[in-house]
Amino acid sequence: MFEEQAARTPAVVALERGADRMTYAELNARANRLARLLVSRGVGPGTAVLVCMPREAGLVVSLLAIAKAGGVYVPLDPDYPEARKEFVLGDCGAALALVDRPGRTTADELVLSSLDFTGPGEADADLTDQDRLSPLRLLHPAYLIYTSGSTGTPKGVLVPHSGLDRLRRTHLGYTGGTPGHRVLQLASIGFDASVWELVMALLSGGTVVFGRAEELLAGERAPQGITHVTLTPSLMGAISPETFPPASTVITASEACPQSLADRWAAVHRLVNAYGPTETTVCATSMPRPLVPGERIGLGVPIDSTTVHVLDDTLSPVGPGETGELYVAGTGLALGYHGRAAQTASRFVADPFGAPGSRMYRTGDLVRRSASGELEFVGRGDDQVKIRGFRIEPAEVASALDTTPGVGRSAVIVDGADDNRRLVAYLVPDPATSDEGERHQVDDWKRLGDEHYRQTEGESFAGWSSSYTGEAIPEEEMRQWRDATVERIREGAPRRVLEIGVGSGLLLSRLAPDCEEYWATDLSEVAVRHLRARVEAVPGPAARVRLRAQAAHSTEGLPSGHFDTLVINSVAQYFPSAAYLADVIDKALDLLAPGGRLFLGDLRNLRLLPAFGSAVVLSRPVVPADALAAAERMLAAEEELLVDPGHFDLLRRSDPRVAAVDVRLKRGLADNELTRHRYDVVLHRAPATVTEAAGVRERAWLGMEDLDTALSASEEILRVTGVPNGRVLGEIRAHRALQDGATADEARALLTAAEGIHPEYWHEVAARTGHRAQVTWSARDEAAVDVLFVPLGDGTGVEIASGAPAIPPTASRVLTNQPARPRAEAELISAARAHVRRMLPAHLVPSAFVVLDALPLTPHGKLDRAALPRPQAATGKRGRAAETSTELTLCALFSDLLGVDCGLADDDFFELGGHSLLATRLVNAIRSAFGVSTELRTVYRARTVSALAEAVESAAAPVRPRLRAVRPRPEIVPASAAQRAIWLSEQVAGLGTAYHIPL
């Protein structure tokens, strides 16, 4: 068939890889020459020839040459593990391997790059049976491809030539293949979809374009002009339909495709769902037409020369709409499993509906036939499991999950063994709803802000609580924090100021009197209303202060290029994402006049987050048994934005508007989380009379010896690097100890036993040596700082900026967290759990849910079940199960808010991942569920289900005692009234088996 096509289109490009091209005539000639060489090496019908090389022209030349010689093509992906390679080589019995370079296998190798494809013209001619060792027949095996076996050992499927022509006819009839079309080749050569891709193109005059799935996953577009591509649903769910030109023909196969995913792709492309085990020569059924969005996706109808049967356990056909096992018959059936007669006999069985001697393949797939005759996939017969006496089909649960709004893709597996087995669901969010979490996050902070400012009047430090103790940070420490921020902003002599996130006016009250103009915005309308009333009460400032209620990313009503100072202080942590922060900074830079300053204050340091989490857990009165796990749960639920200081190094390098960056630690002697973990950044708008301290004299920290002398003896700028940070060194050592297996008591002792130098000390050193100290984070060690000593009065008039910790261009370090993610994941899990509860019986509702960015894939593009992460382990503690209705309801509220299982009366809301924002939601949920008002501080004091249940019940009825079981359940329980009625009816009328339940 290929030779006929090559004769029709000799000058058409057959293969394309980047800039390399090969026409049909060149490809056919090379394959003929190689085929003759193979024949001379003893390759004939039935001879296995291994092919181990990358997906390139040589691979196709090898495949065609083997087919022309009559041999059996045995593909072996060069990226497979050595153990897999050795198994295939030993099992297939190949004595010869075609490779691109020596050493790919341990067989006798023929290296294509060393072959001379020039020579007499007659060698280019197509081979005939006279040229082969023996005549080639349709039932001779064409290829041997290995699939995963149920026992864990791969099994080789031997496929004859007879099935390939039907693939060509299917392509022309169902997928719209025409001469000149371009087929993207993505599948591994060890996957039979690669045969399908090559047949699609080369047997109908098209072009094979070699591509890489990794490039598509990285967001790159498909090569130009692609018309046809075959994708697994797992890969489709990980990329955008816009990856391919509009109206491309997309064939999805190898897995069940979720309806929502199919609808998304069908709206952009010609989507065709195909089905077929390797044992049926790639494809057995196909949708006869492209899917229309909203149309139920199914397996379609049998392709040419194929018959399908839907049978019950007795091999009798089932009726339309009934579920049965799918059997496939026809010319596409494989010859069997190489060297496995018993397995072949169990799967390739006699066809009672066909001619004598005909066979059919037992797929193990459960399907049903619709009224129109098309097949619909139900699940795998061998995936059925029994959990707590119920027979369960995980595919049925996944199918229900796939219809949950917001779920783009799902998988369901059975976790555990014996009596501990449970269903675990894995969810991938629908990309189309990815922005909803950010919008909800902003709305949440707005509601909290409005509520806060309704309860406070005037300048207030209310709400500033210590994460370590839960107590309010002393007001004197908060005033020091405010004063240090004001002084830092005043360094730039601000005249025209815009403050985003003005709040109660803590900074405005200090800065506005010295400014010509002071504009301020806040997300909370309540805050702006209260502040406006206070400002208008003072005639002087009122004339130069303008207040607006609007979000941080909104520039409505704000003059562009106008401000010399723009302040965003202690606000960025409430931004929902790094993208939102980038958008705010981008717009803020446009609002600045040339030479202006963008002050980002009170940023939380992402690099210190793990140590901070461990320190918070270790500071609790009662430390959980697994302190590190509790800290990790707390961090996973973090809903504030944290930023690695190195983020601003990348920003300076990527945005020409930023002339310099000045990152500095917070000033102050107070010992709290604000001074330990937060920092300020100034971005200088170009052009600016400021320069970063690059290339200055450096001195690695070796101790205090001779430092004063070195500073006094020179008027050059000096950077001292790697100085131990006395503020956080204890926390970091405690965290590292937990990672190394230390007990909670051992780690807690390190919190206060650490050495190090308090950063404020360096300002004293600078003052006595005639310098100004600028303390910034170390780029190399999160437990250290760098100290920049700048001589006072150098007379240059050029301000020196500290810069930001440098990030190597090749570094892959995460520079921000995803604060909207915990909320979005919890909501998605809650929605999915509620959705399946409405659609399925209780025993089909998964016990655990895990949200992933994407489902892991095997090299073949299928779901890699082994790579799925296990759900978050339970704490392992034992305790009293929730008993009362109040406790059970609270457990349900905990589960829905936190996305974890909660069933013990001793379960602690905060140990399970709760935090202040979720505690606020819990208060609202309690109000809705019980109709009682609970204060936020009650949740902090009554942290467990049982304690909170007592608080709720006391709020509802203070004198009502708690109901508890007073005696154990008796071994023989008296019959209920309904049971007695059934017994009586049986005695009188004889009901038989009407009330029996088969198990």
List the helices and strands and how they pair.
Blueprint: H1 2-8, E1 13-17, E2 20-23, H2 24-40, E3 48-52, H3 57-69, E4 72-75, H4 82-92, E5 96-99, E6 108-111, E7 141-147, E8 155-160, H5 164-174, E9 182-185, H6 193-202, E10 207-210, H7 213-217, E11 228-231, H8 233-238, E12 249-252, H9 259-266, E13 270-275, E14 285-286, E15 301-302, E16 306-311, E17 323-330, E18 336-337, H10 341-347, E19 348-350, E20 359-369, E21 375-380, E22 385-387, E23 390-392, H11 394-401, E24 407-415, E25 422-429, H12 434-455, H13 475-490, E26 496-500, H14 508-511, E27 517-522, H15 525-536, H16 539-542, E28 545-549, E29 563-569, H17 578-591, E30 592-604, H18 609-618, H19 627-636, H20 647-654, E31 658-665, H21 673-677, E32 678-685, E33 690-692, E34 697-700, H22 707-712, E35 718-724, H23 729-739, H24 744-750, H25 761-768, E36 771-777, E37 784-791, E38 799-801, H26 820-839, E39 848-851, H27 885-898, H28 916-930, H29 936-941, H30 945-956, H31 977-989
